[in-house]
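Regression report. Comparing outputs from two consecutive submissions.

Submission 1:
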Amino acid sequence: MRQPRPFLFLVLALAGLAPSLWSQGRAPARMGRVRGIVIDSLLGAPLPGATVSIPQAGRVTRTDSGGRFVLDSIPPGEWAIGFHHAALDSLGFSDFGSMVRVFAGASASIELVTPSFATLRPRFCAETPDSLSPTVAYGAVRSSDTKRLHVEISLRWLAEGDAGRAAPSVRTSPLTDSEAWVACGVSRGAWVHLTVRDTTPDVARGGSVLFRIGARGIAMLDVLLAPGVANIGGTVRDGDGRPVRGARVSMVDTGIDAETDAWGAFRLTQVPAGTRTLDVRAAGYHPWVAPAWSGNDDVHVTLRPLRDQDTGMSAGSDRLRFEERRGRTGQVVLDGEALEADTATLAQHAPPGTCRWWLDGRPVEREFALAQPRASWRAIERYAAGVDAPPEYRSTGCAVFLLWTASADW
């Protein structure tokens, strides 16, 4: 059972103990109820699936699809009421609370609201050049050996109309056992590539992670730096909870991958320890790209079918990494207007001796790659020497051909 958070304890302390007639030896009083709605101010909409509770009364419920809730059998008095939601917990915000007065035989109405973005932004961005930033990204960098860190952090990000821009405002500040980081000025809906390097003398460690700033405009990411290697495992399922067999699961920038079995299970071994980026691909589904912590054998991935349109910005993690690779040694690229004007076939673009064919980040047979309709093409990427390709697509002894289409996270 979820334990009450410090915020609720503070509210309860300020309010004192709620009066209860039974504790005074009197006859039980008629109960009341609390009706209300939870509003997510970051989205400007009701919040379904939130857990609402009055801990001292032992009452808990969840909001319906319209963000509404009812708590019955509440003794008369003034009570601390709070709520939390997994999506808000992931941003570092939880257990928002208020006070409600309940009368015998009556219904009390209350509107529970999260802080707005305009309220939260000054805490992070007020003293930066991006004080009016449309987003906030923040977190902490920790070391597995608890040694003091001195980190340098850089961000590259991509949103519609941008091409791998650097975030204008990134700052760090030391904490007791970690170092905090904050980035302001990134576009809403953007994919971000966070790179961390520990500058402590005689220490060589770092990491890089891809994440997205969602519709709420806030992202929180804690990064763990750790030496050595570890394993990571989990399951891949579709939206109905059915296992996805044959999905390709890879750790970005490592060349380590695996396929899911009949139960949708996967396991990657000997991957670099710490916080990394997990990439999951399956035919007929949108790519799934998110931070993951090696050593975790309980990663649960849910894939969305391609028929479900992405309501966010069109720029995605595939295009961000593509832009970061642009100009890589041995790379030949065709995209944008040059690709639109080109009349050659895919077979003509493929380097002689190509033996590795990739379609939207998945390995495929040559015939399947070459059969993709021209209208779906977004970019062609080829490496005459396969060893020049990025680790996750690399091959020795033959050329590598990558085709990115409308089905990619582009």
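Submission 2:
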Amino acid sequence: METRYARKVSCIMAAPSLPEVNMAYSTVTYEPGRIARLILDRPDTLNAQSRLMLKEIDLALDEAARDGDVRVVVVSGAGPHFSAGHDVREMADPELPPETAGQRYQRMKQAYIEDHLRWRNLAKPTIAMVHGYCIWGGWMVASAMDLVFASDDAQFLAYPSPADFWALPWDMPPKKAKEILFEHRVLSAGEALSVGFVNRVYSRDQLEAQTMAYAERVADNDPAMVLSAKYAINDSLDQMGYSASVTNAFHIGSAFGFARTANEPHKAYASFASAQENPHANRVRTAFERFRQDQKADKQQD
């Protein structure tokens, strides 16, 4: 039986090249080419993901998918970090247009489920090139890519409960996912490699060169064969429930989140942007303090 992935490959390979799209971006930098580069470009916020950035990531990836000259897409972050995750200061902005619970649900479902799943199934192979912080929403973007290459100083922290694009049970063995999530623990690049979330680790000064060299080798291959392999693997995971699982995780997280912020979402989110009162920031801060303590203890033992 022909799957939707097989039909998609046939249509993509048979279709003529689409007209070139020239977008102007303000939160990302998109560089077309044989190896297209998509760079999260808000280094002053550690590449925190605003609503606009998420939309521009989607538009840039769509531009790459439409470009017949693009063979591989590499996603990275400007400045010292890949991404510190959600832009909680924007979430707390009282100037944002008010939303009903239904409107907020539809917006978040579009951004975190429909868009992220579309990135996962992009008609090009994708590589997340991660350095520095890869926290919460940063993890989600990396998770939606086909491969993750990381610098040896990269630090990974997943969202601790079901929400948004939450694919941890698929990114690593389920019991390992539970162990990490229950503790809300930061992963070093080495541990992220050992559990299977990261494919390769390089020194920071070699990360870009090695990632681009790998991308060139992928680009040298028949794009139909590469795309067929990608979709066959994605389809195998979907037959086991991948897409349904991440969608259901979003629904579970939405139920809890909307219950917490149903009456005054901006007021509730305002605490997220306060260093003193922000429970999420405190969780992140605690996780990184433990991580540094563990690293220090390991060095002393060595």
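Expected: both submissions complete independently.
Actual: both completed, but the second showed a warning that disappeared on reload.
Relevant detail on submission 2: Strands lie at 28-31, 35-40, 72-77, 126-130, 133-135, 147-151, 155-157, 187-188, 200-202.
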